[in-house]
Each structure stands twice: as C-alpha cells, then as structure tokens.
C-alpha cells in the first residue's frame, strides 16, 4: 500500500459531507489502489488523537475522539416567542384574574387549548390561584411575580391601558371585540378562594407552542 493511496483516502474522507464506503472510495481512486489497507493504516495513525477514523454501518468517517466530545458542546438560549393565542390568553388573565378557562374562552370567543395554558405555566408567567366556589369547582389562573418582572411592573395596579399595553409589547395584536380592560390602572380583584398548595396542584405538560383550536393561523 502506497503512502499516496493513504493520503488520497484521507483527503476524500475529510472533504466528504458524510461517511464513505469502501466502494465510494474505490470509485475515486486509481484502479490498483488498496483501499482496505489504506483505511487500516489511517485508523492506526489517528488512534488516540483528537480526531479518529471510525467505521459506522460499513462506512468510514473522521470524528472527534469520544473523550473530547464535551469540547464541541455549545449551550445557548433559544428565545421562544408566545403564540398569538398565548398572548391573548395572558392579557385576559392579567386583567381579569382570578379567571377560569371557561371565562378565558368566553372573552376570546374560541376554545382554549390545554397547550396554550401549559406554555404560560411553563414560562412562569401564570400560576393556578385556587378553585372557584361554583359548580365543577374550576381552577382559576392569575399572573406571577415573574410576569411583573418581565413587563417591568411594580404591582398589578400598575397594569397599563390598552394602548400602553401594546406599546410595552404585552400585546402585538388585536383582541376580540368583547375584550375589555376593567378599571385600567386600578386595583385587580383579590378574590382567591381556597388557594392550592404546591403539592395539591395538578401536573401540566407542554404539548406545543401553537394557536388554540378553531383559530386560523
């Protein structure tokens, strides 16, 4: 096996977009090239180095040595934007809390999907406040301190009016005609019957970050 064959195989594997089989390599090399011997020599030469030659499903490729893979890991925060449905739901909860899912649906005029509330709960912008003393004992929702911090509010009494709310980025869309802001800038209801303990709160799982059912994109 010539050194030239080894170098040619090395060049092909480094330039390839994916792993190459022996047949792939043979098609590009001179007819008398000993591909298997070249691969064996390369594997031995790179063994123990930062990059190694490995065989994966009958194909060959160079890859980072397993003990150095942590150096290739990059951690970054991926910003996630609230969907239109989530923005509307958050605004309704902020101005009408404590509010039930049925009340949110009545204001928005569409059925609220479980995923929308799950997203707001996962982001920590909304929490379960308690159960309404009414048939079915529905769970009520309210905003959290994280909501105040995110929008730069000292307290719920500092919630802005509709125009200010859009300017602050809380709303970037038009809400349904039935949406109303009760007492803009005024106190928010403190009704909070039978607060739930953390251990008593049901589990929620995020299914998706999308619009509610029956809602056009």
UniProtKB/TrEMBL annotation:
Pfam families referenced in this protein's UniProt entry, alphabetically: SMC_ScpB
SUPFAM superfamilies (alphabetical): Winged helix' DNA-binding domain
Keyword Cytoplasm: yes
Ranges of Acidic residues composition bias in the record: 189-201
InterPro entries named among the record's database cross-references: ScpB_csome_segregation, WH-like_DNA-bd_sf, WH_DNA-bd_sf
Family matches, as Gene3D superfamilies: Winged helix-like DNA-binding domain superfamily/Winged helix DNA-binding domain (1.10.10.10)
Name under which the protein is recorded: SMC-Scp complex subunit ScpB
Annotated source species: Phenylobacterium conjunctum
Gene: scpB
């Amino acid at each position: 096996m010539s050194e030239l064959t080894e170098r040619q195989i090395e060049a092909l594997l480094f330039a390839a977009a994916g792993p190459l089989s022996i047949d792939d390599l043979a098609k590009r090399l001179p007819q008398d090239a000993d591909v298997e011997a070249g691969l064996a020599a390369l594997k031995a030469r790179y063994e123990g180095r930062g990059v190694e030659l490995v065989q994966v499903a009958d194909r060959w490729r160079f890859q980072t040595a397993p003990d150095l893979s942590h150096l290739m890991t990059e951690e970054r925060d991926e910003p996630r934007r609230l969907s239109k449905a989530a923005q509307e739901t958050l605004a309704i909860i902020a101005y009408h809390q404590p509010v039930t899912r049925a009340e949110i649906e009545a204001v928005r005029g569409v059925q609220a999907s479980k995923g929308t509330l799950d997203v707001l709960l996962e982001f920590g912008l909304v929490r379960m406040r308690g159960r309404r003393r009414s048939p079915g004992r529905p769970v009520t929702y309210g905003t959290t301190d994280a909501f105040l911090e995110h929008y730069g509010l000292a307290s719920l009494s500092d919630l802005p009016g509709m125009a200010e709310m859009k300017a602050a980025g809380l709303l970037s869309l038009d809400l349904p005609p039935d949406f109303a802001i009760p007492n803009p800038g005024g106190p928010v209801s403190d009704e909070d019957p039978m607060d739930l303990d953390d251990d008593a709160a049901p589990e929620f799982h995020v299914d998706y970050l999308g619009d509610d059912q029956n809602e056009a994109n």
